[in-house]
Automatic annotation (TrEMBL):
HAMAP family, alphabetized: Ribosomal_uL1_B (MF_01318_B)
Region (Disordered): 15-115
A Pfam family matched in the record: Ribosomal_L1
SUPFAM superfamilies assigned to the protein according to its UniProt record, in alphabetical order: Ribosomal protein L1
Biased composition (Low complexity): 55-83
Keyword Ribonucleoprotein set for record: yes
Phylogenetic lineage: Eukaryota, Viridiplantae, Streptophyta, Embryophyta, Tracheophyta
UniProt-recorded name of the protein: Ribosomal protein
GO biological process, one term: translation
Family membership noted in the UniProt record: Belongs to the universal ribosomal protein uL1 family.
Length: 379
């Protein structure tokens, strides 16, 4: 028995020739295992499948009896049939990424692996990548036009008349920036005045009265006169109005609450402070027809008013502007305590036509015009 073991060791000592790992898939068969070698053939223009089939049909060497002595009793396990096959030159070149889609994807995969490894290193050592902050957009500021220097009142009137070039008679407008806070109740600016030379446009006046007051309003030239029937007509008329001013007797003020939402937004609601709620209906109608205007500060602390037509003479326009400035000074809030009547109150005064450019007016010339109007009123 011992000599058989020594004989077996002697037989196993020489090196074995390379054995292919392609075996039959059935491990229990007793057929002898034939090692197969696949010589490398030159690249053939045929498909890779044909090269593999030709390599599988190559000749095999005869098995050596010495190989059978070292095999296990159950035989060898058959590996993957595709494993260990010799590759052709085309397959080897394609496997190395020498072109095609695989060659294009390999650099991308390599870059992805590098980015992932860098991210793992940063997370392991606690490094935080700085976020790129986008710069704020640069605001392109438009070039500001040089402000016009304030000019004399008469010169500004001439400029407005020269620049009124529309195909209709434009209105001379005044826009006054006041130094008050409209959010405070004690700094509210509002008032009314009758322009010495009128507004230059026809004004339709509506009067809410009955009886003798209604007759006086008709005699004074009121365009619309009525009582409860006029209120009901306005309420059911869908917001259509055919008048520009409203005057009411004190008796009708509670009844006007039905149409307050219609008259209020249009500035037509009668107000005792503005003289539109009065028992002297005849005088109120005459004043409204002669050019009575109301003014009130808006949310931006600016007062807007129309003071006549551009076809008025320069002297008429100057007197209308003087009357308006005088009324502004009378409506000055008591809380504005300044050494001058204008300091801190009238910040900017601009004249323009309906569709023309504006021209700033100096405070000194406005003061002269207001004093001139006051002198005429005293006489």
């Amino acid at each position: 028995m011992a000599h058989l073991v020594r004989l077996r060791r002697l037989l196993l000592r020489p090196s074995y020739p390379q054995i292919s790992r392609t075996f039959s898939s059935s491990s229990s068969s007793s057929a002898p295992i034939k090692p197969v070698s696949y010589p490398v053939k030159p690249e053939d223009p045929s498909s890779p499948n044909e090269d593999d089939d030709a390599a599988a049909a190559s000749t095999s060497t005869a098995p050596s009896p010495r190989l059978l002595l070292g095999l296990p009793r159950g035989g060898l396990r058959a590996p993957n049939p595709g494993h260990g096959r010799a590759r052709t030159r085309g397959q080897a070149r394609r496997g190395r990424g020498g072109g095609g889609e695989g060659g294009e994807e390999e650099p991308l995969q390599r870059e992805a692996r590098r980015i992932q490894s860098d991210a793992r290193v940063r997370s392991f050592f606690g490094f935080q990548e700085e976020e790129e902050k986008a710069p704020y957009p640069t605001l392109i500021r438009p070039e500001k036009k040089p402000q016009k220097a304030p000019m004399d009142l008469m010169e500004a009137i001439r400029e407005v008349k020269a620049n009124a070039k529309r195909n209709f008679i434009e209105t001379l407008e005044a826009h006054v920036v006041l130094g008050v806070d409209p959010r405070r109740g004690d700094q509210m600016v509002r008032g009314a005045l009758t322009l010495p030379h009128g507004t230059g446009k026809t004004v339709r006046v509506a009067v809410f009265a009955e009886g003798v007051a209604a007759d006086e309003a008709r005699a004074a030239g009121a365009d619309v006169v009525g009582g409860d029937e006029l209120i009901e007509e306005i309420r059911t008329g869908g917001g259509k109005l055919n008048f520009d001013k409203c005057i009411a007797t004190p008796m009708y003020m509670p009844r006007l609450s039905k149409i307050a939402r219609i008259l209020g937004p249009r500035g037509l609601m009668p107000n005792p402070k503005l003289g539109s709620v009065t028992s002297d209906v005849s005088g109120a109608v005459k004043q409204a027809k002669c050019g009575r205007i109301d003014f009130k500060i808006d949310k931006t602390a600016i007062v807007h008013a129309g003071l006549g037509k551009v076809n008025f003479s320069e002297e008429y326009l100057r007197e209308n502007i003087g009357a308006f400035v005088h009324a502004l000074l009378l409506a000055k809030p008591v809380g504005l305590k300044k050494t001058s009547k204008y300091a801190g109150y009238v910040k900017n005064f601009t004249l323009c036509s309906t569709m023309g450019p504006g021209f700033p007016v100096s405070i000194q010339s406005l003061s002269v015009a207001a004093d001139h109007y006051n002198t005429l009123q005293v006489k």
